[in-house]
Amino acid sequence: MRVTVNRKAHFNAAHRLFCRDWDDTKNKEIFGKCSNPNFHGHNYELIVGVTGEIDPQTGFVIDMKVLKDLIYSEVETEFDHKNLNVEVPEFKDLNPTAENIAVVIWNKLRIKLSKDLDLSVTLYETPRNFVTYTGK
Amino acid sequence: MRVTVNRKAHFNAAHRLFCRDWDDTKNKEIFGKCSNPNFHGHNYELIVGVTGEIDPQTGFVIDMKVLKDLIYSEVETEFDHKNLNVEVPEFKDLNPTAENIAVVIWNKLRIKLSKDLDLSVTLYETPRNFVTYTGK
Amino acid sequence: MRVTVNRKAHFNAAHRLFCRDWDDTKNKEIFGKCSNPNFHGHNYELIVGVTGEIDPQTGFVIDMKVLKDLIYSEVETEFDHKNLNVEVPEFKDLNPTAENIAVVIWNKLRIKLSKDLDLSVTLYETPRNFVTYTGK
Amino acid sequence: MRVTVNRKAHFNAAHRLFCRDWDDTKNKEIFGKCSNPNFHGHNYELIVGVTGEIDPQTGFVIDMKVLKDLIYSEVETEFDHKNLNVEVPEFKDLNPTAENIAVVIWNKLRIKLSKDLDLSVTLYETPRNFVTYTGK
Amino acid sequence: MRVTVNRKAHFNAAHRLFCRDWDDTKNKEIFGKCSNPNFHGHNYELIVGVTGEIDPQTGFVIDMKVLKDLIYSEVETEFDHKNLNVEVPEFKDLNPTAENIAVVIWNKLRIKLSKDLDLSVTLYETPRNFVTYTGK
Amino acid sequence: MRVTVNRKAHFNAAHRLFCRDWDDTKNKEIFGKCSNPNFHGHNYELIVGVTGEIDPQTGFVIDMKVLKDLIYSEVETEFDHKNLNVEVPEFKDLNPTAENIAVVIWNKLRIKLSKDLDLSVTLYETPRNFVTYTGK
């Protein structure tokens, strides 16, 4: 009897899409205005899903306050009001696309969670674009 | 060719988190303000998903009106404007966490649906916290 | 050149509609299931609007962090996870309808704000019902 | 390491529910006001999900602009501001229920996408009714 | 001390934009695909606002159930699952733009409400287009 | 009989809060993490409201397509995927707070609209913070 518990969070950040293997012309050609060297930004909306058994005493899969605090310490303090390319070490050599940001967040949370819990990360880059990663 | 049909519904209720195995101090310690003995409450948003084959004549997996009426009779009339701990028999000995409410709703709907249909229940306790149960 | 700055906040609470002038039968007749003596509850969504001149140096009508903290101390700490009828002094003799809650919040915030600022309070009791009070 | 990329789109259309095997009385009996011969309509919200490996250079599963343009050419130009029963060939003999529209959209997009990508289609007929088809 | 109480409602309808003073070519030129003679449709979202004094006993400006029932009888039963041009008498000679629909709804509700109440009607034709009419 | 027509639009941008009258220490003290010299960013949601008489032939206050195109040419092409501080001339000497961005957008649109139309601009910086300017 496994239930998924989801918690929404939020961070604002600047980024640009940029591949180190390519010169500026190629980056501009592939990424268009998303590669603006002066950066642009987003309100990222994050949904973290944790799947597991319900504890018979608490009635919780995971205490929502514990999950909220984990997202805060692992994601919000690291990403909020930051320039992802310049200030977040994971993106020094990794293009901060929504796909890669979701995988980075998943990896940061995965090592903090008990192994009997499954994890999914959904990240909205805009209200119309979002990605999901489940580690599979 | 299986399609999932989803219907949203809504109910308001009061509850408190409370484990009968523990005294008030332990309940307060574990559940914090969610264990307020005077209760607090939520606008619960419910999404019921039913998966099955499309009927070639109606073009329906299930008639949405039938599903809407089922949610009304099984869930809304039982939970809406109620105190879950005091007035809903399923929670007399079960802590009304979002996880447990979702499982109770799933069980109530499951027995009313044909066996060739799969069922999922997603319950928003707040716009930022929600759970999903699929019976697996 | 006056601009309105709006901040959203959130609290969960239990309540019942109840008029002290009437007996239980009359309360039930007028308020129906909203008068359930065991209480029900809501996720209240609050939008506080503050209108004033833009400060030429900060570019702010009011620092959003100041407004957020004010809503937290005046409204969220007082109302969140509470039973409005039982635990919030303003509703000891006042029926906690959405209308009256909005007026109470407006009065609590009004005295904390500079007189050259205008104030509006919008309160969602459910996603389909909301009220606005501007002090006029 | 497979990630799902989702893109939202929108179209408005008129339709009526109608099964060619039945006379008007039977259609009216089964579909009620949804079978109004003068048609009614919806703002359809569409979410297209594409699952695949992240390209190590672009950081994309699929370029969101490519996906957006594909939805535009295959779905929006065909369905937007149209009468589905009268003007969209796929529904000449197929009842335009949300289920069937989702399958038709899935089939139109599937043949345009690389075979190593998985595809899901979620279609909101109203804010309260939506369906998902994944081709399984 | 006047408070505005708002109630959301919903109806689906087909329509086409069409001015009787013009021939088909001119209609097509002015209204484009919105003038499709086979109709298209929308999920209309309606917000009705009623402003007045709070009754000291009920704590209501207007009983939300009364307002909900009024919207149902005056608007939903008349417009829902209808073809506005063909089946709604008010639009026999009036182009069913969002502006005109809002004014028609306002007029239908205005005569049913006490004169000491102010009325506003907001109508969403799509999630991105909406209009407001206050009778001024 | 004046009606307000509203159109939603969207742009993504990077910015930092920064007052030229102050040194870095003072900027950091007043604006906190919003003054990060490497920038952060937002998905700005914009609602433009235009109030006027309904044209008796078109049934429009303003053709929504005209309004949409105006927002595109005046706002989206200038602000979308840009660094507001670095690339948008209006913010060379003006702090790009939500308040100031709303006033700048209002001024850009005002001169393009007929004088008998009233204009309002609402700008969401995040889903929880938004401002409105009406030119009064």
Describe the structure.
The structure is a homohexamer of 136-residue chains. Chain A is an alpha+beta fold. The first copy, chain A, contains 4 helices and 5 strands. Chain A has helices at residues 24-31, 64-79, 84-87, 98-110, and strands spanning 2-15, 40-53, 82-83, 118-126, 129-133. In chain A, strands 3-1-2-4-5 form a 5-stranded mixed sheet. In chain A, a hairpin with a 2-residue loop joins strand 4 (118-126) and strand 5 (129-133). Chain A is elongated and about 60 Å long. The two termini of chain A are 21 Å apart. The model of chain A has no long low-confidence stretch (mean pLDDT 97).
Instruction: Give the largest interface.
Output: A-F, 23 and 23 residues
User: How many domains would you count in the coordinates of chain A?
Assistant: 1
Percent range for β-strand residues of chain A: 25-35%
**How would a crystallographer describe the biggest sheet of chain A?**
5 strands, mixed
